[in-house]
Amino acid sequence: MVRHDAVEAALREATAELAAAEIEQPHRDARILLGHVLGVDQAGVLRRRGADLSSAELALFANAVARRAAHEPMATILGRREFWSLDFIVSPETLIPRPDTEVIVESAVALHAERPVRRILDLGTGTGCLLLAALTEFPGAWGLGVDLSPAAAAVALRNTRALRLADRAAIMVGRWVEAVEGRFDLILCNPPYIREADIAGLMPEVAAHEPRMALDGGADGLDPYRILFPEMHRKLAPGGTALFEFGIGQADALLDLARASGLAVVAVKTDLAGHPRVMIMRCP
Ligand code: GLN
Predict the structure, then answer these.
(1) What is the 8-class DSSP label of residue 246?
(2) CATH classification of the domain holding 248
(3) Distance of CA 239 from the midpoint of ligand 1 (Å)
(4) Average pLDDT of the segment spanning 234-260
């Protein structure tokens, strides 16, 4: 006689539903979502094999699977994403932290091994991932994260507390540097840099589910840099460094903008796939 296994059956059905919706790793996502619903890790899911699932657990799982089948990103269904080995709360109002963005933190750490960092500014902080990752690397520093979206700022604030960095971090709602006082040793920024016309063509996880405000860089994707590069003279402390993420194919235009703004480009760093991704600048 075949033993009834509710966990196996639920996983099989969910995998089929996700595969039909053209989700890339249907079995993996189904297992992770079931673990999320049950509040256990993957080993815990295996241990539940052969056991029953309650109707509440089945309903929650069905809901999570339906969201994933509609191409909602795993991170917003789970409400979390790892960045710089830290656990970040994410919401549909925040950009999901990307591994490529870690290049900013890595570069800042390398550049400021000797140069002191007291004040850090993160422009368009979203989840707060850049600011909070940097604060863990510079234990003597204080930081400010700014976001135009109050909903994103609220998530960043929750992350300052969840990561026990609230005593060294402030989060503010604002348009770029408009209401920011003082100068900073490190300015970090992963601005929206997708060309407006390209957004609809991105994968549905991004185009339909990530906040447009966090993606849309205007007609050529460069609007934020045009606004921000000229501000660096007023916002960087002597010896301070600005690190900006940018998109594929934007490096040359950014070099021109940096030059036009009187900034010295220290280096351009590549991402994990070898694309130029982060521009590092100082005031000469
Ligand atoms: N700073 C956040 C990140 O890097 C948000 C960036 C954004 O919303 N464009 O993930």
Answers:
(1) -
(2) 3.40.50.150
(3) 25
(4) 97
